[in-house]
From TrEMBL:
Top-rank lineage group of the source organism: Bacteria
Cited Pfam families: GFO_IDH_MocA (PF01408), YceM-like_C (PF21378)
Source organism of this protein record: Streptomyces venezuelae
GO molecular function annotations of the record: nucleotide binding
Sections of the chain in a coiled coil: none
SUPFAM superfamilies reported for this sequence: Glyceraldehyde-3-phosphate dehydrogenase-like, C-terminal domain, NAD(P)-binding Rossmann-fold domains
Designated name of the protein: Oxidoreductase
């Protein structure tokens, strides 16, 4: 398979390239507009010059079987449009775009062209979170906190809090019929946000504090007098009377722990099998993000 990787920033280097460069039968092509970065990353991963490209036209000329988009979010609409119009099955980092209208257009374009479009919600594939689907989930609580990073609401929600919202949607045991948003926005910057999703017999709460003093991610699911915690995607604590702890094995790669390896393999397996992937469900998460952003913006104006 000829696979293109567009954008060679932090997430591509830390998470995706270590997976893509070890897959058998994959001919990897790299593309970035920064020659120095292209040369350095290609050298680290032993990608020959003939597979290194500084513009998208040159990459598309390689007759790709699939592409991964890890470029900055602001250029996703342009890049994804080009790939889909060229008929290339595309995996794009979340979010699809900052503006909901752009995300809707790209999902619609992919469906009209019959081209696979997948969105990088890797937490759905992370073992600690995927296993929670088997646990009672009357209540779901997820927090993802940071140190000293208040940010513009749209950027914060679409680039980071989107993972929390998508995980809550993924784990919700039924349809969501009520959404409540609370946030603190000062001088145009979001300090924290809390979202409550509710349905028949369950409540799911997602929180992010950008001035928490700690960088952490904690998921709790509970029901039927049992509780499971997943701490930083690496440690699972089951509570039923006495807690029992399971930690990530010493030799388990971080990419597998975080679901990156699994989501990459799932996407490529679908491409090989000729299975059409739709981003329609991912779009529902983007719609929820837009609802949170608008509520925060209104609160900030108030």
């Amino acid at each position: 398979m000829k696979i293109g990787c567009i954008g060679l920033g932090d997430i591509a280097q830390k998470a995706y390239l270590p997976v893509l460069t070890t897959l058998p039968g994959v001919e990897l092509h790299l593309q970035t507009r920064t020659p120095a970065t292209l040369a350095r990353v290609a050298g680290v991963h032993h990608v020959p010059d003939s597979r290194c490209h500084t513009d998208l036209d040159a990459l598309l000329a390689q007759d790709l079987d699939a592409a991964f988009v890890h470029a900055p979010t602001a250029v996703h609409p342009e890049i994804v449009t080009r790939l889909v119009e060229a008929g290339v099955p595309t995996y794009v980092d979340k979010p699809i775009a900052y503006e909901l209208a752009d995300s809707e257009r790209l999902v619609r374009l992919a469906e009209e062209r019959g081209v696979s479009l997948a969105v990088g919600f890797n937490r759905r594939f992370a073992p600690g979170y995927a296993q929670c689907v088997e646990h009672p989930r009357d209540m779901i609580l997820m927090q993802k906190n940071r140190v000293g990073l208040p940010e513009d609401p749209r950027t914060l929600v679409l680039d980071d809090f989107i993972h929390v919202l998508d995980t809550l949607r993924f784990l919700a045991p039924g349809p969501i019929d009520d959404v409540t948003v609370r946030s603190r926005v000062e001088d145009g910057l979001m300090h924290h946000v809390v979202v409550q999703l509710a349905g028949d017999g369950f409540v799911a709460i997602g929180m992010m504090n950008r001035l928490s003093g700690s960088t952490e991610e904690i998921l709790e699911v509970s029901g039927q007098d049992t509780k499971r915690q997943v701490i930083n995607l690496a440690e699972i604590v089951d509570h039923k009377g006495q807690p029992s702890v399971r930690r990530r094995g010493d030799w388990v790669p971080v990419a597998r722990q975080r679901g990156i390896e699994q989501v990459v393999l799932s996407f490529l397996d679908a491409v090989r099998a000729g299975k059409l992937l739709s981003a329609r469900d991912a779009l529902a998460t983007h719609e929820l993000c837009e609802r949170v952003v608008r509520a925060a913006q209104e609160r900030g104006r108030g």
